[in-house]
Amino acid sequence: MSLVTFLGFPRIGLKRELKRALESHWHGNTPADTLLDTARTLRARHWQLAREAGADVVPCNDFSLYDHVLDTAVLFDAIPGRYRPVFAENRLDGYFAMARGHKRGGHDLHALEMTKWFDTNYHYLVPELHAGQRFALVGDKPLAELREAQALGHRARPVLLGPVSFLLLSKTVDGSDRLALLDALLPAYGELLRRLVAAGADWVQLDEPCLALDQDADDHAAYRHAYAALAAAGGPKILLASYFGALDDNLALAASLPVAGLHVDLARAPQQLDAVLDALPEDRVLSSGVVDGRNVWRSRPDRVLPLLRKARERLGAERVWLAPSCSLLHVPIDLDAETALDPARRAGMAFARQKIEELRVYADALTGQAEAEAALQAQQALLDRQAQQPGVRNPAVRGRLHELSPQMALRRSPYATRRAAQAGALALPSLPTTTIGSFPQTDDLRQARAAHRAGRLADADYEALLEAEVERVVRFQEAIGLDVLVHGEPERNDMVEYFGEQLDGYLFTRLGWVQSYGSRCVKPPVIWGDVARPAPMTVRWSTFAQSLTEKPMKGMLTGPVTMLQWSFVRDDLPRETVCRQIALALRDEVHDLEATGIRAIQIDEPALREGLPLRRADWPSYLAWAVECFRITAGGVRDATQIHTHMCYSEFNDIIEAVAAMDADVISIETSRSRMELLDAFVRFRYPNGIGPGVYDIHSPRVPTQEEMLALLRKALQVLQPGQLWVNPDCGLKTRGWAEVEPALRGMVDCARLLRAELAAAAA
């Protein structure tokens, strides 16, 4: 019989129990023991859930209090020196200092850089290494969680980030070769493997997701060297796990490594199965990732069963494991909790628990169990019927797509002409100041929103509360001297969900939470049908805010690529087609905002870089349609209307030409954690338009000093012309408190004023 397993499970809990425990601890309301008890409870609950769903083996050490890459760095003592004094006082405080920064007890520390985990919306902390780095096994987290699972009666497989991917995902602060540190790292891995086998582990899962990327000869040599050493270490059998794409030219390497099993992603790359079967040595297990671990749709038996039958025919049942394509970290936990969903739509969906149940049914059907075979036939029939339901195809939307012309993706004039028109219309000073959009979402706001949704707060009372909050935010911005204002977005629950709720073709869950980073969770909407905008979405609040002030007020939209990337997307249309539908809907909103007198419109695209395919050969096609969709959204507005966009936690070096091709008048980007390193891309390319490199890291609770922000701005002026430079935070302020936001923004505005005076004096 084929074994049913999975690579990892969501950590946060069905009702975001981990989020609440973390934030309570960070606020000083609960001790560390309470947080750790919550973590143990969640692990036990999730293991039991998976076992009841039909898993034969559960992973362990896939759980994290913040991030699994950070866990790996701490486990092997890759702790930058500046954090060690905090670790010496309290290891948990030191761990969170690396994740969030730390400003107390005489310490004032920035957090580690954070960036996207491949092409997902999960963010990982980037380990900092240096030439001569020493590693040592200093923790016991994998062992402790293995023992927990064993004590509860589970057959468990520890999960570790593999050594080569760990190094490739890290950065060296001195520019040295990351892979040169492999020999220093491998003894620590070897020691851990020996301890795991002594603790009763028969398998260990080593994740090497970088095998889905373009790898060169040096990378291949590193894998060979690493796995020869690990095979000789005397540890458990190794399951080498790759995911997020096909192995392709890394397949021969992966198949040649001395491991006992290989996991491959057959949901994203089913076409690789034949090559994998041909390359796999006779003594290896194939973990077949046939169920999509990144989307919420039930699998199609007419696609999955042929793959599994082919694998079993070639390898035999015992050598074929059934698994999701990747960790289930990227989907919600349990669809059974979504009692309010339309049953017709809900029937075609699967969350983490249901994906494991699907795998169990496939495994049983492969052994000839009639009940399982009938269940798969019924599932296929259901999915076929759903494709014909009303709303899946909207003739009006399809007609607009058919009529789409290249002219719709163009502005009326080149940037130089637009810049002059905007200078006259907006009358901004040099180094103009603004924010990215949202202001703190207080507990009062969240409670009012929940009460309104539940019918406990009348529409008029809720509107009055929102108007009061918008006025408060506008008056605050005027008082501190910001130049381009925002309305603060108090009416918005999430930058994607808010818009999706007002568009046709979307549905929403109640508990469909997914971790983005740390305690930050999002509830991605689900795109099931053609997307259209029945009515204006933001005009009411932008025009109300503009009526309160003479200063320019930005209209705030989430861009089409981000609306796509941060949703669970239908799987019956190409993604670029869905993105164009969204772009046309948002274009209508942009033109309505402009018609009401809004002079600046921000179309956020933080997910543009995230959506970049993992293989470079696939980049041009993606970038062409992604840029086109942004330009469709902004196309046709007047020269005097200033179009902004925002991107965060992205490496721009490889796509700077595409960023420029978006032709936004102003782009704001995250740069404070990287200390302006991301501006290197703009040095090479000489980006012509306005740029706002963030000077305030809003993902950390610490308030930056004016000296820090001034240093960052002066560094930016070494790269940018004064006429290009905008001054802004890294990202929206929704997750921060007013006690942090007010002094940080006042300091930011003061820095801009000081630099203006310096530049004026130098020019005199």
From TrEMBL:
Coiled coil: none annotated. This is 5-methyltetrahydropteroyltriglutamate--homocysteine methyltransferase. Catalyzes the transfer of a methyl group from 5-methyltetrahydrofolate to homocysteine resulting in methionine formation. Residues 431-753 form the Cobalamin-independent methionine synthase MetE C-terminal/archaeal domain. Belongs to the vitamin-B12 independent methionine synthase family. Pathway: Amino-acid biosynthesis; L-methionine biosynthesis via de novo pathway; L-methionine from L-homocysteine (MetE route): step 1/1. It comes from the Bacteria.
